[in-house]
Specification:
Shape: elongated
Helix content: 55-70%
Strand order of the largest sheet: 1-2
Number of helices: 6
Strand content: under 5%
Oligomer: single chain
Amino acid sequence: MKPLSSGITDQAPANPAATDDMLASQPIGYWCGLTHATVTRHLRNAMAKIDVTQPQYWVLNCVNEWPTAPSCEEVATQLMPLAGGPHEIPRVIDQLLHRDWLRTDGEQRLHLTDAGEAARTRLRNLATELRAVVHEGISDEEYVAALRVLRTMIANVDRDEGSI
């Protein structure tokens, strides 16, 4: 596909078999969606083999990284943008309490147990291994450049939607 007379590249239909010379015309939404689905499936399949879910990993990390012990509501609010609905994170917290990976104190604040910290560390190592697979053949500079492009696209859309 060639650039239009205005210098803007024409939008072509999504084509998973697009050659390098066709990529500039490919829809970003298609490729971001396909990337998200593929990487998420890979991560969740690996976690399922050790009987853990990605949301459980999110909660363990969130509790670990909170400056002070968080409440269930604080963790749910923090992770809501990632969750599949308003009830998912509270359910995950209940699962982790049941597994004894989390405990609550007298003020109902969440803390990692030793078993929870061991699980978080195991999952962190697994996520690092899986990241290496996903990033194979991609330098840190290329990865940063790709994320900068995506950030710019998000800002462009946000700015355009603000002018409507």
